[in-house]
Structure formats: C-alpha cells, structure tokens
Amino acid sequence: MEFRVLKYFLAVAREKNISKAAKSLHLSQPTLSKQLKELEEELGVTLFERGNREIRLTEEGLFLLSRGNEILNLVEKTTINLRKDEVVTGEIYVGGGETRAMSLIAKVTKRMMDDYPEIKLYLYSGNADDVMEKLDNGLLDFGVVVNPTNKQKYKSISLPQTDKWGLLVRSNHFLAENEAITPEDLRGVPLLISQQRLVSDQISEWFGNNLDQLHIVGSYNLLYNASLMVEEGVGCALCIDGIINTTNTSLIFVPLKPELDASLSLIWKKNQTMSIAATKFLDKLKAE
C-alpha cells in the first residue's frame, strides 16, 4: 500500500463524499474512484458502502481509518526528526497519566525550549496501558507511568516524585470528616477505581487482597470525569492526590491509612533509535 493512496482513502473517509475528496486532493473523480477500487482489490476487502449522497465506512474501513492515521502520523514524526540542521529541531512525544510528575516534564520542556526554540512537545494523556500501547506502536518517545507497571520491554529511570493515594469524596459525605480512610471505612461505600489493572492490584493488596468486598460501581482512566461523578453522588473515587483542585469546591481528598504511595518512572522502548531532540530531552531529565 502506497502512502499516497492511503492519504486518498483518509481524505474520502473525512469528506464522506468522493467528489468533495477529489476536489480537495486536486484529482478527477474517476481517478480517485479507480485508486480506491484498486486499494480494495489489493487488500481484498470492501472499505466503503456507497450511497447516493455520502459513503459510509465498513468495519474494515473503520479499522484502516484508525491505523491509517497512526501510520501517517508516525511517518511525519519520523521525517521531521530525521531532518538535520545547524540547530536542534524536531518533535518530542510524551505520554502520561494524571500525576504531579508532569510538572517535572514541564520544567525540563521549558529548559529545552529555551535552549532549542525549534523543539516542539506533544503530550498524550492516558493511563499506563494506553501509554505503553502508543510506545509499542512508535507513536510516543517517552511515557510517564505510575508504578507498579510491567516495564520488562522498556528502559526506564525513576522520577523523584511520589504520588499519594486517597479517596475523593463530596464535602457532605460522612467520610469527609475523617483524617484518613482505612480499609474498614470503605466497606459498603460506592467506589470508582482506576481502569489500570496493576493499580487495581495495588489497591487490592492494600485492602487485603479481596476487592470483592468493595462496592465498585464504576472505573475511570482519567480522573476529571470521575470527579464529576463524585460531585453528583454516584460514588467516591480512589485516586491520587493533587490531580483535582478541591479548593473552594464541594470535593475533599482524604488520604488512605496505612499510607499508600506510588513511585513514578519515565519509560521508553528498548533498542529504539532516538531522535536528537529526544536524546537531549532525556539528558536534561537525567540531570535534574
């Protein structure tokens, strides 16, 4: 499959109309139709359901749309970072969950941009599972993950920050007056927990290796939306401190007892060739 033809497909998927797509690509409609037909024949699948006014993607077409965008983004990222000029240029892609450690990433990024104004940073937000998938696909240079995380496939360095776990509750909740939350306090309380499997294992260990005794009503991958559920009384959220600003709000963060802290790591793929920009970023981070 040629990148050129993949771009044609993505344009048609975006416009949902071959005529409009052909116009945006500066091609004739017959030429574009022929290219799409040859693409379907090459792949052995039907990518479009053609209607009178617009076309719809088949299940195979939706899959190619998802992968096609990732492929072209990776090609563009690689091309930009291969360019060599007298000044350091390029793009750095960092993924991470909601953690205070991102303040360190921000600090290092500021220093990078002061030294190399042509550098650009792109952030992706997601939990460790999301971040590692992007790393494996070559769409991220680095990931900031909350431990425990399976890092066998990656190189890593420990970050100096630690995150503290606790319970996000409404100010009128009966647990809001507690100085700390014990495992016994959580029995029967509707809870929202992180979708990250290894984090759930950590919470389970803190609780006594039996999550079945908890009343789990839902899960989340990023905390902001979960905090809206807490505000509405859907449940309380087991989460990391400092992610949601509770000042002058109806929410309160109460730490766990015994304390449950999480260390943090920066990870990247083993045996990958880093761009000059990514290498300098890592050097600056190690120097902190």
UniProtKB/TrEMBL annotation:
UniProt name for this protein: LysR family transcriptional regulator
A GO cellular component entry from the record: cytosol
Family: Belongs to the LysR transcriptional regulatory family.
InterPro entries: HTH-type_LysR_regulators, LysR_HTH_N, LysR_subst-bd, WH-like_DNA-bd_sf, WH_DNA-bd_sf
GO molecular function terms attached to this record: DNA binding; DNA-binding transcription factor activity
HTH lysR-type domain segment(s): 1-58
PANTHER family for this protein: HTH-TYPE TRANSCRIPTIONAL REGULATOR YBHD (PTHR30419), NITROGEN ASSIMILATION TRANSCRIPTIONAL ACTIVATOR-RELATED (PTHR30419:SF8)
Keywords tagged on the record: DNA-binding, Transcription, Transcription regulation
SUPFAM superfamilies: Periplasmic binding protein-like II (SSF53850), Winged helix' DNA-binding domain (SSF46785)
Top-level taxon of the source organism: Bacteria
Pfam families: HTH_1, LysR_substrate
